[in-house]
């Protein structure tokens, strides 16, 4: 008894010095000035272009083209926004509504398809399960441009060209969403599902009433990512939309550069309009995004 205790104490004593200094060293570096200087520099790299876009949208044409560059505009004006909203050939509000409808419907469809597929791969046992998972993951390495022509032909066969359905349905069964939710589902304790089975719940009830409610961070994260991907998509809407009033915001605002080739405030004002809804969305869901990313992919 005493020998075992001594060995255990010796082992614990031998491990303690190895882990303690490492944690203290990590905390020291994390709280040190070098860490925070690096974080500030990284934040500026991402924030400066956005701030420059906002500032330029309120500049005059002369200020936007002045050399040396004027960081602070000599005079603040909303001429660029008035020009965009008053242009009948550029229905910005209609484009924004199209983008909102398409991105929201696409995100909802992604959550429905990905949650069912991910639960099957995470919890159900069937022949070829590992092969199926590997096949789905392998599609992540295929460039997206390869799917442009097949998807275009499919939309043409379905009669969905120049409609929002062409923006909503393609990509709803993407591999990333399935893999992301699958990694979250495998971390859920099986005891919760076993308790539901004992209470008489079927597979669908377990998914909808047990698994999905406690997977809110992952679902919100995937929904936001799907929304942003659809909202910011530029190439695909140009392929499948032809009518000016059917355009989405990124595709429609691209025409501003052609119509106002040297009017940089107008171009930046259009980019500002497209970015504001995204920033507002992120402010409200950032807590879920951080939690969802931190708790997904911990084990395979």
Summarize the structure.
With about 300 residues, the protein is mainly α. The chain has 15 helices and no strands. The longest helix is centred in the middle third of the chain and has 32 residues, at about 90-125.
Domain module count: 2
Contiguous low-pLDDT stretches (5 residues minimum) are 1-19
Distance between the termini: 40 Å
Q: What would you report as the Rg, rounded to the nearest angstrom? A: 26 Å
Sheet with the most strands? none
What is the CATH first-level class name of the largest domain? Mainly Alpha
Mean pLDDT metric: 82
Which band does the percent of strand residues land in?
Answer: under 5%
Structural class of the helix and strand makeup? mainly alpha
What is the third-level CATH name, the topology of the largest domain?
A: MetI-like fold
Helix share, percent: over 70%
Q: What overall form do the CA principal axes indicate? A: globular
Report the count of strand segments: 0
- Going by CATH, the homologous superfamily of the largest domain would be MetI-like
Order of helices and strands: HHHHHHHHHHHHHHH
Q: Supply the number of helical segments.
A: 15
Which second-level CATH architecture of the largest domain applies?
Orthogonal Bundle
Membrane topology: Multi-pass membrane protein
InterPro entries: MetI-like (IPR000515), MetI-like_sf (IPR035906)
Protein name: Carbohydrate ABC transporter permease
Subcellular location: Cell membrane
